[in-house]
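We treat protein structure as text, and this decision shapes the records that our systems exchange. The tokens are whole numbers drawn from a learned vocabulary of local backbone shapes. Below, we set out a record of this kind in full and without editing:
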Amino acid sequence: MTFDFFPSRTLTLYLAKMFSLRIFAVLVMLVLVLMMLDLLSNSGQILEVPGNTEADLWLYASLRVPMLIQRFLPYSVLLATIITLVTLNQNSEVIAMKAAGLSAHQVLAPLIVTALLVAGISFAFNERVVTRATAQLTAWEATEFGAQPDKPKSKGSIYLEDGQNILTARSYSGGGPAPTLRDVTYYRRSPSAEITQKIDAPMAVRGPDGWAMQNPSVFTVGTASLAQPTQLTVAPGITPATIELQEIDPTTQPFWQLGSSIEAYRQAGRDTDELEANYWHKISGPLAAVLMPILGAVAGFGLARSGQLFMRALIGMALGFAYFVIDNAALAMGDFGGYPPFLAAWAPFLLFLMIGETVLVRTEE
């Protein structure tokens, strides 16, 4: 029995090369198929915009492909793990390695190191490429694939509290002579949180005393009366800076920038649970690739002639996909404060690391 963590240099390179090629092949296959399906569903919407051409389809594909790579790289590592180990098992190479004194962990070591390298590349790719592509595609989709503004500085779906009152708007624009809200609704509420007035206006412009709603329609609940003054100023406590902090999309900000945004939220007294959960998930997400050789290892051990190889492969796939389901569920719980952000990002990883090790040890070691 050898006590080195890695097998021989030749065997390590052989396994790492085999695993890497299968990761690349599976990822290319998944991305191509999913990109074609995506284009089939969205190409009509892109081309129906006057002035859009085939070049815009290529632009859409160039922005969408990095997002698909980010999402499906861990799946590719899982499938590549199962394909690699099943192939080794069927060719009796696993039996030969174990007969030479290698443990299951030593057989998996080259795969784990390769997956760790893939995780590092994935992290860099996500933070340098995917965040920019996501920001550009989100801005383009907001214009329904029309022309993009030169300096987009707008936000949608504004919902903010002004003391006990509520301000909502369809969009916010910080450009021009003054910040502007469009399709604005302001709810005045009583101390018991009952709505006493509903004020609608097509536009509100930021002034020195608050937001000046242009041509508002004021409905008073108590008297069921409707008034239409020329202008009405509301929400003096909601500043443009508050609105610009209102929506930070963690998928469009790199890891190092998101930390600053969280700190700005915290200083403004805002809830940071969603941002913190996504902040930690930017690390734990790529590291999911390291879990896949461990979770899929059950497919590589056991006699191929026993007739259970297919069942072992299914168990490996089930463990891998169960991780992705629980990881997404935990992240969603962390987004609305059901779990502490750090726990939401890291608990599934640690849980399935222990499950994978337990299954591996009990079935083979």
In short: The CA atoms of residues 85 and 102 lie 15 Å apart. Residues 9-145+273-363 form one domain. The longest strand covers residues 195-207. The chain has two domains: 9-145+273-363, 155-247.
